[in-house]
Amino acid sequence: ETIEKGGYDHFMIKEIFEQPRSIADSMRGRLRADDGHLQLGGLSNYLDKLAESDRIVIVGCGTSWHAGLVAEYIFEELARVNVEVEYASEFRYRNPVINEKDVVIAISQSGETADTLAAIELAKSKGATIFGVCNVVGSSIARATHAGAYTHAGPEIGVASTKAFTAQVTVLTLIAIATAKRKGTISEETYRQLLIELETIPAKVEKVFENADKIKEIAFIFTYARNFIYLGRGLNFPVALEGALKLKEISYIHAEGYPAAEMKHGPIALIDEDMPVVFLATKDGSYEKIVSNIQEVKARKGRVIGIVTEGDTLIPGMIDFVIEVPKVHELLTPLVSVIPLQLLSYYIAVMRGRNVDQPRNLAKSVTVE
Ligand code: G6P
């Protein structure tokens, strides 16, 4: 086991640091920015189906559901298609309105999650076309779908999912770009630009790791926090959910992720000088709005940790702790903004002496309903 951990203390931290490679592996052979090549072998016969569909329903559980939420924004923006993201466990027990025109994308690291598998069978029985985005080759979900694209993140051992999430987001982004290209809803310029920017992501994730010591110091300060709030808007909203989930899973600290604008409808009542609030505050379309949300929290003495874009001079002057991430194309933000949150939860859990790789009550793959 020591050898498998490759010199790291835990699988989770090894897997976090593997992300530049696992993201690159998810794109390998599929994307070439210099000549505009983008092809997902497993889906090439189904691209017309994706392009013609009026609605895409994404199903998954846990972290995979969060990857689906990220994909919703990207598909809608680029491919101008209506996307719904559902917890597999809710979808399967309703009487969902679904028919042969619909495309269902099932996301699963293990490919064995019982609820996701049951959701697929239900959608299939109603005539929908099912695609899988799985990590484990030959898994039950991979076999149950009509077609799919593997994430190629390599084996993920830590129960809290890290590299599988970024690989899922990468592959879903490729599918969204390919669909948009086929539909003609993406300009040649945006298409080229996204491919170029995708190729730079592994190096940019590597750059986030330069902040690891700083994140460790922040973790030390908040080791014994009892609650945490994570806030983000747009594509960073699912990242806030994922950051809160990571913290809950391995440190057992209560954490909530919220869309920043919804804060005033509830969570703001929780804010006092003891409440750490993590803001996803990268420079994007909602930047100005996030700035005012930060002011609202500071006015109530909350302690703000901000994930900001490199070179930002405004937000660092307003908050308590700053973690910079490199500038990326807005649609690719989650691939870098989630990394500090994974590290923060890891260091807090280690400092609290938790069993990081096998947290209590959780399983890597939930094969029961
Ligand atoms: C479990 C794992 C999570 C995972 C979820 C979905 O709860 O602990 O890390 O996100 O199942 O698993 P899947 O394999 O379907 O992605």
Structure description:
It contains 13 helices and twelve strands. Strand 8, helix 11 and strand 9 form a beta-alpha-beta unit. It is of the alpha/beta class and 369 residues long. Helix content is 44%, strand content 17%. The strands form three sheets. A five-stranded parallel sheet has the order 4-3-5-6-7, with helices on both faces. A five-stranded parallel sheet has the order 9-8-10-11-12, with helices on both faces. A two-stranded antiparallel ribbon has the order 1-2. The model has no long low-confidence stretch (mean pLDDT 96). The chain binds 6-O-phosphono-alpha-D-glucopyranose.
Mean pLDDT, all residues: 96
Bound molecules: 6-O-phosphono-alpha-D-glucopyranose
Strand ordering within the main sheet:
4-3-5-6-7
Kindly state the percentage of residues in helix.
Answer: 40-55%
Give the C-alpha Rg: 20 Å
Shape: globular
Q: Which structural class is indicated by helix and strand composition?
A: alpha/beta
Major beta sheet summary? 5 strands, parallel
What percentage of the residues does DSSP assign to strands (E)? 15-25%
Uncertain segments are none
How far apart, in Å, are the first and last alpha carbons?
A: 31 Å
Sketch the topology as an H/E string, one letter per element. HHEEHEHEHEHEHEHHHEHEEHEEH
Instruction: Tally the beta strands.
Output: 12
Number of helical elements:
13
